[in-house]
Design goal:
This protein is mainly β. The chain has one domain: Lipocalin. Helix content is 8%, strand content 55%. The chain starts with 7 loop residues before the first helix and ends with a strand. The N terminus is likely disordered. Belongs to the MipA/OmpV family.
């Protein structure tokens, strides 16, 4: 571990986010129905969006891949494909946030801890275009419009819905002639009042001279942009991402808990596939 005793749930949530953001352009290849492996990953993540403090982790990363007709677990995340066509598909979107202990965060000192959350909901993908070799060095490309809508649930002994979030984005996937996969996405973040309140409300009982009481509003929550790079080389897979968040113009921008309006996070992971199914299936890689 690097940092102040972060929980494994939060670290694995971040590493899952790394694999879920490295989508690949379509090129049919044969892969085992399932694969298992193990690797290692490193992450740098802010305590929460708008925090001026961050934590870093170095942890083992399990590699699990399943490529069924409906249920899948691969570089695009664990999901159920509900509808699939040439240009349009619907699946289940997932994301997560890490926990924050208030004693480790200056802005939240004396406030209740932030529990980790998991986000689940439908995701509509519309393929705007795709092609091969349009630019030197690029073997394939694919441009998607993605429309995920997720409910956020707290991870605790009695889980509860803490709000809703939508992250519409434009996603460009590239495969280079050298075998590297590049993913680029950008879009706004929109949340309801309940979700924003979970992260940015300050109850009167927790107000101080430097932290006035505050009630967040729902609506626009800033924007995000992400770049990912990955490569599968035999049994080895390596992936890297860097993400930039902007909270300028967000409905809760004036919360005393927002200490930084622009921030970045990054992650690096490497996994080795140790075993796999003898049965192979066609997949889009």
């Amino acid at each position: 571990m690097i940092g102040r005793r972060p929980t494994r749930i939060g670290a694995f949530a971040g590493l899952a986010a790394l694999t879920m953001t490295l989508a690949l352009p379509a090129a049919a290849v044969q892969r085992p129905l399932w694969e298992l492996g193990l690797g290692v990953g490193s992450l740098r993540l802010p305590h929460y969006r708008g925090s001026d403090q961050s934590s870093a982790w170095l942890l083992p990363v399990p590699y699990i891949a399943y490529r069924g007709e409906i249920f899948k677990a691969d570089r695009d995340g664990a999901r159920a494909v509900l509808l699939d066509s040439q240009r349009f598909d619907v699946d289940v979107s997932a994301s997560a946030s890490t926990p924050t202990r208030s004693r480790d965060n200056h802005a939240r000192e004396g406030m209740p801890d932030l529990k980790p959350t998991i986000e689940l909901g439908p995701n509509v993908n519309w393929t705007l275009g795709r092609g091969r070799g349009a630019v030197a060095g690029i073997a394939e490309w694919k441009l998607d419009l993605r429309l995920p809508l997720r409910a956020a649930l707290s991870i605790e002994s009695q889980p509860r819905v803490v709000g809703w979030i939508a992250t519409p984005n434009v996603n460009l996937d590239l495969r280079t002639a050298g075998g590297w996969n590049v993913g680029l996405l950008a879009g706004p973040v929109i949340g309801d009042r309940k979700l924003h309140g979970y992260f940015y409300d300050v109850a009167p009982a927790h107000a101080t001279a430097g932290r006035p009481a505050y009630r967040a509003r729902g609506g626009y929550a800033g924007a995000t942009a992400l770049a990912g790079l990955s490569r599968r080389d035999g049994p080895r897979w390596i992936g890297f991402f860097v993400k930039v968040d902007s909270l300028r113009g967000a409905a809760f921008e004036d919360s005393p808990l927002v200490r930084q309006r622009s921030q970045w996070s990054a992650g690096l992971a490497m996994s080795w596939v140790l075993t796999g199914s003898s049965r192979s299936v066609d997949v889009d890689e």
